[in-house]
């Protein structure tokens, strides 16, 4: 590392050291590679003339180790601004030493705090075929998948100590005939899915060329001559606890690579493989899209827990996997396979669960956290969010993202009702901000946040028209957008299907319902503009606030929930206009239903014009008598 990193650091031909300053004022000298530098300048030159990654991904072979010749090295070019590669594994130079110090400190803290159980888990994930490890993200469908795909593993537990030799996954001797490790057998009920996973993880998806190109050491190789680093923990007396090294899990000590020059840390190959498998499964089984993405993030983190990789290694693996998965799925040569895999998975799971395309998603989320670790969407978000950036800090301006060519294919089965251009907008409006150097490489694949993108738009920067068809089944018939949608644009809902808005939305362009069902699952679901119900049914599952005016035409319905001792179910800031033939449908709250003889406020506005053609109530014992005023509507509940 450069002499300027620490005043005691001095360059040498083969090694330089940088100073790690602990919170307690101590210092540790960490041996880290020093290097020649072709990547930073070459990366900028290569990016200026390069083909899109999805058109060039087959250049990722070990014969190509420069950004001009290798598409993966190019998309990982953000790392070249942090690390200057040398001619050997131990001759590199940090260009952003503060980030790389934080990277090492994080690894030290994580391995110092590792439990025995976590060490064993990291061994299993290290030795188990990555495509098999990801299957657990299928939740209630996982065991069905394993049996249908004939997917097996021999790595189901970890030893207490260090095994005597190398251990590899294999088909157990007692496995059913035709079984296979990884995603399973091609000669099975889910053979097309297994083949899709293997294709996405195909011959151009290796992390080895990039490892050879960047030559960034694994964290445990940087322990030489190190002294102490503050772990961030305190002992029982309140004094800082120090740890000097990244400690590899004991079960993995003999599983490590033996040649430092051929065993680089960046990018993490396991992380790449885990995310590739997860995105392939998610394409075939989009009902578990977010859960599979979460599983990949969780498993990738075990690489740091194991002491085998650092945060930048894991980030690099995720970045390349996003690009490689998109490239394989967008490749015309794989079009028939990916369609066959999706159709096969849907037919298989429907038959095995007794569901339809419309009910499979509910079944796929029917378990609780006791049996499905990914049953809680909010918990999944908390798992993913900090791992999108780890120790990276933002530097510079937040430049708008141009979504990489072909990236929209990653949402193709999760949001089949959107056009390719609309899926690109979803990716753009849910992306991470710019300024994270490692994520800002060529085409900025690292900025994609697929977990959040699965929950729909992050912003309406222009007017959006979405069409869902009830006859299409699955996500083509009904979907939920959970993000908090901002922007100056508005939403128009078409088609016979159902769209649910569940976020705290702040878009200003208004909401228009033309057909089907639009569900407002939060008080601010419809943003801050006017609302027009020209057809179909607008349903509110909670008290609904409309910040502008509300217009409802004939032939349309408004469905509201009414509760005992509660305010109006619909609060409109401006005027309400009701057309002839419009319908109001009221549902009694199951937990706090109003009772006979009471008058319940339903709608409040600055002014109300017109009347509903009829007011319906979902009760066999009560009927609702509307009471109109100039600024709202109440109903008297009477016995039938």
Automatic annotation (TrEMBL):
<keyword id="KW-0732">Signal</keyword>
<dbReference type="Pfam" id="PF12951">
    <property type="entry name" value="PATR"/>
</dbReference>
<dbReference type="Pfam" id="PF01569">
    <property type="entry name" value="PAP2"/>
</dbReference>
<dbReference type="InterPro" id="IPR013425">
    <property type="entry name" value="Autotrns_rpt"/>
</dbReference>
<feature type="domain" description="Phosphatidic acid phosphatase type 2/haloperoxidase">
    <location>
        <begin position="192"/>
        <end position="329"/>
    </location>
</feature>
<feature type="signal peptide">
    <location>
        <begin position="1"/>
        <end position="36"/>
    </location>
</feature>
<dbReference type="InterPro" id="IPR006311">
    <property type="entry name" value="TAT_signal"/>
</dbReference>
<protein>
    <submittedName>
        <fullName>Phosphatase PAP2 family protein</fullName>
    </submittedName>
</protein>
<dbReference type="InterPro" id="IPR000326">
    <property type="entry name" value="PAP2/HPO"/>
</dbReference>
<dbReference type="InterPro" id="IPR036938">
    <property type="entry name" value="PAP2/HPO_sf"/>
</dbReference>
<dbReference type="InterPro" id="IPR011050">
    <property type="entry name" value="Pectin_lyase_fold/virulence"/>
</dbReference>
């Amino acid at each position: 590392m450069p002499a300027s990193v620490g005043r005691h650091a001095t360059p040498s031909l083969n090694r330089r050291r940088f100073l790690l300053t602990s919170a307690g004022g101590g210092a540790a000298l960490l041996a880290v590679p020093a290097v020649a530098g072709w990547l930073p300048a070459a990366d900028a030159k290569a990016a200026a003339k390069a083909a899109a990654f999805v058109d060039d991904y087959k250049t990722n072979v070990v014969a190509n180790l420069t950004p001009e010749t290798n598409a993966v090295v190019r998309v990982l070019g953000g790392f070249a601004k942090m690390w200057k590669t040398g001619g050997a594994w131990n001759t590199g130079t940090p260009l952003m030493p503060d980030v790389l110090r934080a990277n090492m400190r994080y690894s030290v803290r994580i391995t110092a705090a590792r439990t025995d159980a976590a060490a064993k888990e990291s061994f299993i994930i290290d030795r188990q075929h990555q495509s098999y490890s990801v299957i657990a993200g299928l939740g209630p469908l996982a065991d069905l998948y394993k049996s249908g795909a004939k997917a097996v593993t021999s790595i189901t537990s970890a030893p207490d100590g260090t095994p005597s030799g190398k251990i590899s996954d294999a088909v157990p001797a007692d496995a059913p005939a035709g079984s296979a490790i990884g995603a399973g057998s091609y000669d099975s009920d889910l053979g097309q899915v297994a083949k899709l996973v293997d294709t996405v993880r195909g011959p151009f998806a290796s992390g080895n060329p990039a490892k050879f190109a960047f030559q960034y050491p694994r964290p445990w190789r940087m322990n030489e001559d190190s002294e102490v680093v503050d772990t961030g923990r305190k002992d029982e007396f309140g004094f800082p606890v120090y740890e000097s090294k990244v400690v590899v899990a004991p079960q993995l000590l003999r599983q490590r690579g033996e040649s430092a020059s051929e065993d680089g840390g960046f990018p993490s190959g396991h992380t790449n493989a885990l995310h590739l498998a997860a995105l392939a499964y998610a394409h075939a089984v989009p009902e578990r899209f977010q859960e599979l993405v979460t599983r990949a993030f969780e498993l990738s983190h075990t690489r740091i827990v194991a002491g085998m990789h650092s945060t930048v290694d894991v980030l690099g693996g995720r970045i390349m996997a996003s690009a490689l998965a998109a490239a394989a799925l967008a490749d015309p040569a794989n079009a028939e396979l990916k369609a066959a895999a999706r159709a096969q998975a849907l037919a298989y799971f429907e038959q095995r669960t007794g569901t339809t395309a419309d009910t499979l998603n509910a079944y796929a989320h029917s378990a609780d956290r006791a049996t499905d670790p990914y049953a809680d969407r909010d918990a999944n978000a908390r798992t993913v969010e900090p791992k999108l950036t780890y120790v990276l800090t933002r530097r510079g301006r937040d430049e708008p993202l141009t979504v990489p060519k072909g990236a929209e294919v990653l949402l193709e089965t999760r949001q089949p009702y959107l056009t390719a251009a609309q899926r690109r907008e979803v990716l753009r409006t849910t992306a991470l901000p710019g300024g994270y150097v490692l994520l800002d490489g060529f085409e900025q694949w690292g900025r994609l946040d697929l977990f959040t993108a699965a929950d729909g738009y992050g912003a309406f920067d222009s007017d959006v028209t979405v069409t869902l068809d009830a006859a299409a089944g699955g996500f083509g018939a009904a979907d939920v957008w959970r993000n908090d949608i901002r922007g100056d644009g508005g939403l128009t809902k078409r088609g016979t299907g159902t769209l649910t808005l569940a976020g705290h939305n702040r878009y200003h362009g208004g909401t228009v319902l033309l057909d089907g069902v639009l569900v407002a699952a939060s008080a601010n679901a419809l943003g801050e503009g006017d609302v027009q119900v020209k057809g179909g049914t607008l349903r509110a599952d909670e008290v609904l606030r409309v910040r502008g005016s509300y217009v409802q035409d004939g032939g349309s319905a408004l469905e509201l929930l009414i509760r005992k001792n509660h305010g109006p179910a619909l609060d409109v800031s401006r005027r309400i206009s009701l057309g002839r033939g419009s319908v109001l449908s009221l549902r009694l709250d199951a937990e706090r239903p109003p009772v006979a003889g009471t008058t319940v406020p339903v709608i409040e506005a600055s002014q109300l014009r017109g009347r509903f053609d009829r007011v319906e109530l979902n009760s066999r014992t009560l009927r609702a008598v509307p009471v109109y005023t100039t600024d709202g509507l109440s109903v008297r509940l009477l016995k039938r």
